[in-house]
Amino acid sequence: MATSTRDRENAALSVRNSGNSLLRTVSVATGVLGSLYQASLLFGFSLPTSLPQFLQSQQASIPPQAQVIDQRTFNALPHVPPPSHFNGTSKPFTPPGHTLESLLERPFHVYDPSFVALLGSNPSLTRIAVSEKDPLFHEAVVWSRNTDEVFFVQNAGAPDAGTGLAKSAIIQKISLADAAAAADRKRAGAADADTLVTVTVVDSTPEVINPNGGINFRGQILFAGEGMGEDIPSALYVMNPLPPYNTTVLVNNYFGRQFSSLNDLVVHPRSRDVYFTDTLYGYLQDFRPAPGLRNQVYRWVESTGALTVVADGFTLPNGITFSPDGKYAYVSDTGMHHAFRGFDYSDPATIYRYDVRPDGTFENRKTFAYIDSVVPDGVHCDTKGNVYAGCGDGIQVWNPSGTLLGKIYLGTTAANFQFAGAGRMIVCAETELYYVTLAAVGAIVESEM
Prior knowledge:
Elements: H1 5-25, H2 32-43, H3 53-58, E1 66-68, H4 100-105, E2 108-110, H5 115-119, E3 124-130, E4 139-144, E5 149-153, E6 171-175, H6 176-187, E7 200-202, E8 211-217, E9 220-225, E10 235-239, E11 247-251, E12 262-267, E13 274-278, H7 281-284, E14 296-300, E15 307-311, E16 317-322, E17 328-333, E18 350-356, E19 362-370, E20 379-381, E21 387-391, E22 394-398, E23 404-409, E24 416-419, E25 422-428, E26 432-441
Parallel strand pairs: 1-2
Antiparallel strand pairs: 2-23, 3-26, 4-5, 5-6, 6-7, 8-9, 9-10, 10-11, 12-13, 13-14, 14-15, 16-17, 17-18, 18-19, 20-21, 21-22, 22-23, 24-25, 25-26
Domain SMP-30/Gluconolactonase/LRE-like region: 256-423
Organism: Sporothrix eucalyptigena
InterPro entries: 6-blade_b-propeller_TolB-like, Oryzine_lactonohydrolase, SGL
């Protein structure tokens, strides 16, 4: 249908006015950029070369620790290197006009204006522990509300850790009061060496063997242990978060068959059933035998002992979480990363979303997000249903529709993380541990705390 110049101008004005009206009534407007671009294509008006108008209007409210990343600046690059030179695994992408240093200087990256509300007026990122080479800060990040501590584990199978077959990865913890005090010291101008906190080793009894995933479970902590060699199977262990940290094995087989390498787990917020992923990383890191089962997602019902498969068809399933209302499940597939065997760039680096039926089964798998930096590992939601994932450049955040909202940029891999009460987050980055403050509140399963 033909349109006149006046029609196009009126349409453009209408779109702009609609965007401005939305900004006046909502502190952060989601999706206006997409609407503006669609209207420009339909009605033939040109977009400005500066930041989109709604991002300009947000400039004053963007905290000094944050910066806008305008994706239009790299939609068409003068040179795009071949996969042999850049493939999203060796180093994070640096947008035009930025350097690694400038990206790290203001580490909260705004890709969509709604990210500003999740950050709040004064977000902070503080490094609170560091290891020279040993990846002590890996996964199984669990907040113990009663003690206000956060537990986490060492990388199992990493050469610099010496774990896997020779010894088990260890469990550790830090005090959140110590982390908050470290953040206060940084705000006051302290150097990085003066923001480190005490990291305590947790001696579980009996020992949890090569733990990787962890969640709150009936007031305790449930770990996914990867196992060791042929004779110590992969298992779910429950541990008391108080000394002497006594443990019990809850599940260690599927009808007499060993799991391959249990990775991550989550409790459904309504049914309280446990869902967990089984993958190949123990085998790919040479401390578990060749697999005897498919790579799958399982569901365990504590009251009956029923253990069922709810999803398969993955390359390497990894992180798993639910939306706060339990209606959606998110499962990350880190298939691109084959551990000691390198990368296959055509394999998934993907988060999939499933509908969760009232009976607890999964259906309607869809691609939720494909990651630009290495792979998505641990995944979690906030109370608004936004999805956060540990990726090769830090924490990436999407809204429930899969729109990238922003990043908590580390410039290095964040394997996993966890909210620790309102406005607090602990991030495990292998040889570094971070404490984040922001406005977002993590979704928890209250019955499990």
